[in-house]
Each structure stands twice: as C-alpha cells, then as structure tokens.
Amino acid sequence: MISVDDLQYSDRDCLIGTRLQVHWALQAISAAADARLEHAEDDSHSNLGYDHALHGLAGRQLPDGSAFALRFTDAVFMRIQSDGSPGELLPLDECSLEDLLSWVNQRLPGSGPDIRLRDYDMPSHPVADGSSFELSNAEALSRIDAWCALGHACLTRALSERPDAGPIRLWPHHLDFGGIVLLNAGDNPAMDPSIGLGLSLGDATYSQPYFYVNPYGLESRPDTLPLLPVDGFWTEEWMGAVLLGESLFIYGVEAASAFLEETIRASRALLVNRD
Q1: 213 CB-near residues (< 8 Å, 6+ apart)
Q2: Domain check: are 158 and 217 in the same one?
Q3: How far is it, in rounded angstroms, from Cα 49 to Cα 127?
Q4: Paired strand residues for 77
Q5: With pLDDT > 90 as the criterion, what percentage of the chain qualifies?
Q6: Residues 57 and 92 both lie in one domain
Q7: Which of the listed residues 83, 103, 137 is the one where a domain comes to its end?
Q8: How high is the pLDDT of residue 2?
Q9: How many domains does the chain have?
Q10: Residue 124 lies in a domain
C-alpha cells in the first residue's frame, strides 16, 4: 500500500531530472515495439504496463515472448525472458542513450529493421545529446516508482466496474498512464462522447505528478463548471480537470480516488447535458 511518505520528495529538481531521464530511456522500449510488432491503429503496440512485482515498466511481448523493461529500484534496463524471468541486465547509470539503443538492438528477436527513436517532441535533456544517464539517486527513483504504482492502482480501481475499459497502460510519448470511459457503444467510438482519465508523471505545464480527467465531446466550454473535491480544478489550458500531486500530501493518498470518482461523475453529467 502506497503512503504519502512514499510519494513525498526532498529535492524537486532532482525528481524532475530523474523523470526526464526515465522518459528518454523508455523510448527504447517503444522503439523495440515499433521494430518488431504490428503497428496498432491506436498506437497501443508501443505502450507499457506497470509491473508491481518488478517495480518497473515493461513493454509488450515481442514475437519470441520476450520483452524489455526498466526497473526503478536500481535503474536497470532488462530483457525479460519468455517465461517471465529476468534475463540480461544493463545498468543505466553512466550509460548513454546510444549505448542503450545499441544494447536493445542487439537483442531484438528475429529479423527486421534496426530500432530508431520516433521523431516527436520530447522534453530536452542532455542525455538526448549524448550525455550519460545519471540515475544514482535512490530517493528520486523510489518516488517515481511509488507514483507509478499509485497511479496504476487508482486508475484501475476507477475503471474496475466498466467492463469495456481496457488495462491501464503508460504512453511513452507524454509519460502518462491513461484510460477511457466510453459513454455510448456506437459504431464510431472515436466520435462518441467519452471521458479520459490518467496520471501524468509531470510535464511542461505541471512539473509535478498530477491526475487528470478530460470530458471529450463538448462543443464548447460550459460557462459554469461543477466544483471538484480535494483541491481539484478545471484547467484553462485545455478542457479538463486536474489534481496536483502535492494535494495528496495534505489530504492523503485516498484523495486521488475521490477526485477521480467525483470528477468522472461530473464529466458524465456535462456530456449527458451538453445539448
């Protein structure tokens, strides 16, 4: 069970720096998926799952049943064998991104193209320009692991009574866990109203972890929005609600589930009454 003590950090700058490096390291896992898996229309072949036993994130199984993963406890990149046991390990500290990509490329199963990083916007960090990873801060790694564990658990719980909801996965482009609630079972789900929910580990808008809920399908922003629990607020940047991670330090970890539950309910009401 994750507690507030597991989430709090003494050095925010160090946490941000570690998070940025984790973000870049995970691109190697999605690149392996791009090189060996059939590309899904929704890009889900490239996403990752949180493994509570591993204390890390693992990509999807490749054709031979193996998978690549990043373990937070010691910042080790690994190849998980087809039986689920840990295989070869690569400590990331003092390793370069080029070294990591080469290591993964040499262990790709079967024939196919070499891995390559996607050409999309990523946060800047020296590792992208050739500097080595500096992932020796155990507290920062532990905090990222705890936020992943909490986010995965809370989001899974929020969707537990919705049989049409898929598993909670982490999307490597924006480094966030996400799920979706479909309000209609229409022929074109992409056009139907829905509610997105997730946990971002931090980004350019909010440098700390935060939970979010987004109602999709509103033609315009309502003049009046419902009040939200435990310091949740509706953002100005996009049509959605946010609960900053620091609010959990005041209200406890239970605040995350309370925010998700109440904000999903409020978003559903907005969408149902949108006409």
Answers
A1: 195, 196, 197, 240, 241, 259, 260, 263, 264, 267
A2: yes
A3: 24
A4: 70, 90
A5: 90
A6: yes
A7: 137
A8: 97
A9: 2
A10: yes
Give CA–CA dist 31/232, Å, rounded: 35
Condensed to tens digits (0 to 9), the pLDDT of residues 164-178 reads 777 899 999 999 999
| pLDDT above 80 (res 148) | yes
Boundary-marking domain end, from 91, 119, 137: 137
Same domain for 247 and 126: no
Q: Which residues of 217-252 are buried (b: 16+ CB within 10 A; e: fewer)?
A: eeeeeeeeeeebbbebebeeeebbbbbebebbeebe
DSSP 21-78: HHHHHHHHHHHHHHHHSPPPTTSGGG-BEEETTTTEEE----TTS-EEEEETTTTEEE
pLDDT at 95 over 70: yes
Q: Quote the pLDDT of residue 49.
A: 98
Residues 110 and 227 in one domain: no
Q: Is residue 3 part of a domain?
A: no
- Where would I find the beta strands (DSSP E) of 149-263? 169-171, 176-182, 194-200, 210-216, 233-234, 241-244
Domain extent at residue 52: 11-137
Give yes or no: residues 145 and 249 share one domain. yes
Give the C-alpha separation, 75 to 88, whole Å.
Answer: 14
Over the stretch 200-252, which tens digit does the pLDDT of each residue have? 999 999 999 999 999 999 988 999 999 999 999 999 989 999 999 999 999 99
Please give the pLDDT value at position 188.
Answer: 57
